[in-house]
Specification:
Radius of gyration: 22 Å
Largest sheet: 3 strands, antiparallel
Strand content: 5-15%
Structural class: mainly alpha
Number of helices: 7
Strand order of the largest sheet: 1-4-5
Distance between the termini: 27 Å
Shape: elongated
Length: 200
């Protein structure tokens, strides 16, 4: 696995893991760059966008940056002007394009959230109020807030058990999309709440 900065949301996790992707001038996606250690042994394999500056023979030069997501979605191409970049470090000169890619991915996760199955306002209102009350409690008694958070976990596991079993009967791609997850993520979530192995 190559090293690069990635982004996730608390709700969707690895199902929508984002990163800044690189495109070369011919429109292809470069493979990870391998940096050998001075001792001649192994070294890291890196696909962080900022290494693709073309300064070494084995390192291609990025022509554009775009957001990519583990779900397969890709964002708008943000071109890099190398005449303007010149000898600047790409990590600095390309930061505007990288920030734009992050914003594109943020917009993508908002779309995912909006396309997921809607919750009744009574439920979302209660969850918001509960979060606010626990945050307020944390200011006067951190330990009580931790206990409240733990009770919330216990409650979630308890109330999720039967719905997970009922929903398991028709586990489909559409069901995964309704949760804003990929199929693997949905299967593991159902298994966690339903208390069965996700591998059977």
């Amino acid at each position: 696995m190559s090293e690069r900065e990635t982004w996730t949301t608390e709700e969707f996790g690895a199902s929508h893991e984002g990163a800044v992707g690189v495109l070369l001038a011919d429109g292809t996606v470069p493979g990870p760059v391998f940096f050998q250690m001075n001792s001649g042994g192994g070294g890291p394999s890196v696909s962080q966008w900022s290494v693709y500056d073309g300064h070494f023979a084995h390192v291609p030069r990025a022509a554009a940056l775009r957001a990519v997501c583990s779900c397969g979605w890709t964002g708008t191409e943000h071109r890099l002007d190398w005449d303007e970049i010149g000898e600047q470090e790409l990590a600095e000169a390309g930061s505007f394009a990288a920030d734009a890619a992050l914003q594109d991915w943020d917009d993508h996760t908002v779309e995912v959230e909006n396309s997921a199955i809607a919750l009744p306002e009574t439920v979302t209102g209660l969850l918001t109020r509960l979060e606010e009350e626990i945050e307020k409690l944390a200011k006067s008694s951190p330990l009580a807030a931790v206990r409240a958070a733990r009770r919330l976990e216990v409650t979630a596991v308890r109330v999720g058990y039967w719905p997970a079993h009922d929903a398991r009967q028709d586990a489909t791609t559409a069901q995964a999309a309704a949760l804003g997850l990929d199929e693997d993520g949905a299967r593991k979530l159902m298994a966690r709440y339903g208390r069965w192995s996700p591998y059977f």
